[in-house]
Amino acid sequence: MLTQVLEVSKSTYYATKDRCPSQRNQENEQLKEEILQIYEKSKRRYGAPKIMHKLVQYGWKVSLKRVQRLMRDLGIRSIIRKKYRPASNHEKVESRENLLKQDFSTTTINQKWAADITYIHTQKEGWTYLASVMDLYSRKIIGYSYGKQMTTSIVVNAFHQAMQNQQLKDGKHLILQTDLGTQYTSDEFEELLAQYNVRHSYSRKGTPYDNIIQGLSLFMRP
Q1: Which residue from 131, 126, 132 is spatially nearest to 150, judged by alpha carbons?
Q2: CB 163 within 8 A of CB 176
Q3: Cross-referenced PANTHER family, in alphabetical order (predicted)?
């Protein structure tokens, strides 16, 4: 046994072993330093989604949940005020503005995007979900994310991919059209759009045709 070879007691061996930081813990400490630097450089405006995007740009392979957990450990969060005042669910839905009003015309790329979640049924995994972002000028899918659960993470990841593929750092001239699904109306997604200065347009309740991307993905639905 190793303790006999080293001539140390079991308690001493395990106490020493426990004090050695694991590779995961060391990586978390490095990540915390990176997160703090990004957070401070943004003047404390960046939340977890945009910090994760920056980390990926720097070469890190990290999930949104991990960044959120490390930010909680550090006791930091975005100081950007929420776009909408606290209200009941009914009030929130009514306050979502349809900026496009079915005007999907554009003169160039990155003026108007549309995002949607497509339900895909598979034999092995049952229902799965594809979040897509389409540029209304090129009519091309510029970002997507696929998952087994319809979470906010898949719409966040699809949007990040679209921003990266379009090499867009500031969305001040961009409008994103979505439906009123909980993923798109979540605080996390709203915060992400605010950080990129993207204006959010919502399909009117009961009029799904306002979200043009649905026409592209209907063939994928059962």
Answers
A1: 131
A2: no
A3: TRANSPOSASE FOR INSERTION SEQUENCE ELEMENT IS904, TRANSPOSASE INSF FOR INSERTION SEQUENCE IS3B-RELATED
Query: SS3 of 168, please?
Result: coil
Q: What is the DSSP letter of 92?
A: H
The torsion region of residue 53 among left (phi > 0), alpha (psi -120 to 50) and beta comes to alpha
- 56-67 pLDDT, tens digit each: 888 898 888 899
Measured at the CA of 196, the angle between CA 27 and CA 81, to 5 degrees, comes to 90
Amino acid present at 18 = D
Indicate yes or no: pTM above 0.85.
no
Count how many Cα atoms sit within 13 Å of the Cα of residue 151 in the half-sphere of its side chain: 10
Question: DSSP assignment, residue 76?
Answer: -
How far, in Å, CA of 204 to CA of 197, rounded? 22
Beta bridge partners of 115: 133
Sort residue 109 into left (φ over 0), alpha (ψ -120 to 50) or beta.
Answer: beta
In 61-206, the DSSP E strands lie at 112-122, 126-135, 140-147, 175-178, 199-202
Q: Are 48 and 31 in contact (CB under 8 A)?
A: no
- Side-chain-side CA neighbours of 122 within 13 Å: the count stands at 9
Domains in the chain, CATH or no CATH each: 2-74 (no CATH), 94-220 (3.30.420.10)
Q: Give the pLDDT confidence of 13-41 residue by residue, as tens digits.
A: 455 555 556 888 889 999 998 998 888 88
